Amino acid sequence: MEANGGTMDRSLSRVATLVVGAAAACALLAGCSSTGPGAQVIGTPAQATPVGAAPSGNFLAGLQATISDELNLASSNQSDSESPVILLELEALQSVPDLIRAEQFTSLQTVGTNQTAKREKVVYALIADVQNNRYLAGVDVNGSSLSSSLVSMLNGVNAELAADGNQIAAAQMPDELRAAVLGMGNSTRVYGLVEPMVHLSIAGGDVIAEVNDLAATEQQLATRVAAGSTTDPNYGQESARLRDLSVQISIARVQANAAVSAVLGLTPAGFPGNKATIQSSRAALTALRTPFGTLSDAIGDVDSINSLLGSGA
Questions:
Q1: What Cα–Cα distance (Å) separates residue 128 from each residue in 51, 109, 160, 186, 191?
Q2: 149 compared with 39, residue with greater pLDDT
Q3: Which residues pair with 54 in a beta bridge?
Q4: Mean pLDDT lowest among 4-13, 240-249, 289-298
Q5: Residue 138 and residue 264: Cα distance in Å, rounded?
Q6: How far is CA 248 from CA 81, 143, 297, 309, in A?
Q7: What backbone phi and psi angles, to 5 degrees, belong to 140?
Q8: CA 288 to centroid of chain Cα atoms
Q9: What's the pTM value of the predicted model, to 2 decimals?
Q10: Cα–Cα distance between 174 and 182 in angstroms, integer?
């Protein structure tokens, strides 16, 4: 290899061409690789979704709107879209014969630092999403606060990102640095796993909050029905509806808890196979809220009991 001019100049010219080519390929990936609805532009952290705002001032309406939003976000963030970007950038840089040169090594470190920072922003946005959701207050899964469990998990992801960042900064050789940058994505899976996990867990927690609200309503209705046991001509129908309401609430609680528990147990090591768990849990939570789902049946029971109590007064 010539030390001055010749091959060296051609190498530097080639890396400029490769980096530009990598950027163009990344743009193509952004437009073509995603199959989910509403895919984000590669490298752009998801924006935290405002939560807790009831459109009609009704608690249940606001809760159901929040659940729908989180389920949609869980569905749209199921691809680890940053990996192709990193790989293209690294290949462009690595193709330069004298990668050991200081400016190329620094460029590679910059790639790793930027990718770590992007993921940290996403994680902080997810923490805010959890903490700002007013419906998760008092929601427990497996005996622990769901909100606390999610924040603890996300803090763990940030700790892993910090460790990866330190490893990238401390790397001395190109191969060592390249392994550290690629390992950062694999060790956290922020885009392909953590994002849908959190949004799905929030949606499941909101479903549990909805179930808790229905359970409280059931107790109130049971008291009213019992008060008219000897005088209300609709007592038999009201009692039957109450029994069905109790069954629907129990089913919904079990299914929502199971869906959230399943996704909380996922780890980056199981990616991409564990995406099937995300998809099945989302389907289970969505089914609960369909027109003929368990929660819809429970709400129908509540409306019927209220109507019977009103007509029997």
A1: 10, 29, 19, 24, 17
A2: 149
A3: none
A4: 4-13
A5: 18
A6: 39, 22, 7, 20
A7: -115, 145
A8: 19
A9: 0.72
A10: 12
- Asked whether the predicted pLDDT for residue 10 surpasses 80, the reply is no
Residues 6+ apart with CB under 8 A from 75: 36, 37, 196, 282
Distance CA(6)–CA(311), nearest Å, equals 95
Question: Among 103-112, 147-156, 185-194, 197-206, which is the least confidently predicted range?
Answer: 103-112
Two tokens at 200? 């799905």
Burial of 146: CB neighbours in 10 Å, binned 0-12, 13-18, 19+: buried
pLDDT of residue 87: 58
Q: What is the pLDDT of residue 90?
A: 59
Q: Where are the domains of the chain?
A: 7-312
Q: How far apart (Å, rounded) are the C-alpha atoms in residues 11 and 174?
A: 17
What is the per-residue pLDDT across 129-138, written as a single tens digit (0 to 9) for each? 999 999 999 9
Checking if the pLDDT of 15 tops 70, the result is: no
SS3 1: coil
Is 60 exceeded by the pLDDT of residue 93?
no
Grouping H, G, I as helix, E, B as strand and the rest as coil, residue 140 is strand
CA 85 to chain centre: 21
Q: Give dist(CA 212, CA 150) in Å, integer.
A: 20
Q: Which of 18-22, 80-84, 288-292 has the lowest mean pLDDT?
A: 18-22
CA distance 277 to 78: 11
